[in-house]
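Handout, section 3.2

Students often ask what a structure token actually looks like in practice. Rather than define it abstractly, here is a full record for DICT domain-containing protein. The first block is the sequence as you would receive it.
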Amino acid sequence: MTSHPNGSAPLAVVPTVPPVPPVPAGGTAGVAGPLSQAVAEATARATRSRLDGEPRRTWEHAAGGRPTPVPKRLLVAVSHAIEKAVVSCPIPSTADGTPPTVVLALFQRLEFFERERVVYERLAEAGAEVVVGFVRGEEHRPPRGVHTVLLDAGEKLADEWTVVAVGPRAGAFLVATDQHAYDAHEHGTEAGRRFSGRWGYAHAQAGAELARLRLALGTRLPDPLLRSIDTLLGEVMASGGEVAGSGGTPGEAWATASLAHMITRMQTAQAGSRALREQLADAHRAADAHRSADVDSSSGLPTPDFLERWSAPGGSTELPVGLALVDVAGLDEAFEDPRAEYHAARKVAAALGQPLGPVDAAVRLSRREFLVVVPGASPRHLAGLGDEVAEQLELASDGYPHIPLTATVATIVTHARPLPVEDLRVALTPLPADATGAVDAGRTVAGERIAVVSTRAGRVLPEPGRHEPDQQEPSAQAPATRPLATAAAGHPWFGPDGQHPDDLLPGSHGVAAAEVPHPRA
């Protein structure tokens, strides 16, 4: 049992995700393949780890704890939420001695405030004491009823994106500091700005932020306004045994946690929509390259010329691309009959193309190497595709030309351009001949994880013209496939390895992979 950070009732331990049910007779493997099950296990472990730490992270967040990296999109959403919360509720009159409601915002530049001018004028008309700050040097037209403060470009407040709202019975705050860094995945410099911030709906913490700003702005605020702020702080600031940085009441903590969840979902939807647009553009480029690429005469698949035309550096977006390098050792042998090689290559091409979608592609890199390219793939989707390709290759080994087409498959979800095909080749080299299940082949220089699975250690193929027995006893010639949990026990891919839980997903990039799912799942 895990205790809540505030010392209240314990939380139940999250149960283990049940294993994949056995495949019924005559059915297909589905998600029961070694790559798919490995990704499912890694996803479950990452989810459990996040859930175990969620109460602590949420409590620290609601208590205005350590700042975390936040994108500009999040700051815009939280700022609007705080402004709408204040303007939509009746503001108590101060005529009967009730402390005022104060809203203080730092906008850095005047152009950012102009979009919100009407909202802050409305707050002032409703009875709130409203203060907005701008960097000195710009010409300001004061809004009706709003106090304006000029900031020097060199002072710390000039780097803040701050909205603090404090009333007699409620409060909210957003405090973020400009990191003067940019997210390369965003379109445009302004949208890609990065901040370090914290926010919440704890009344006491909002009061503490207002007191900080009151001291920092000092005499730049008029005396009547200073007296109003001091009156409010005298009512709402913690005293005696209370903790000034408290996460607030359960209702305030619930509001902070629920709003954080809703904003995350909103960002997920926005990122998903943006990724879909990028995927569509990427698909058009791939289709153009596919039509103009040379074709291998034996397999009928595009040659590596396709990859060079489509995925050259600077020629594509940073849309994630799933890659599965398929190494079919049986094609490397000398063929006495040219027709045998032709039919074998065609069988491989059919096995690779069977599970592919309209924007996916299979490419013949060399005599025995093939590459499956899946734009916009998630690790889970790519793992299922890799398992299906491996199964199709095993089935294709039966019958003419009686060539074993079992293969080793290395998969990665990558943002890199050019595509890291050589990294996949290196990952296949040290694979043991008797390897079973999915094997973690480590990470690329860019931190993207490679997974490898061998079909050589799978089911035993029947001899030509004979049916496979229903039951196959494990033997030295036919090693039984061990359960995944046993085969991969203690391996970093299937458990914490010092990285963030989201990094357990192959090809993930931290929060983006966990919170922003790829279009194809």
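Discussion prompt for tutorial groups: Confidence is low (pLDDT under 50) at residues 1-31, 457-521. How would you have guessed this from the sequence alone?
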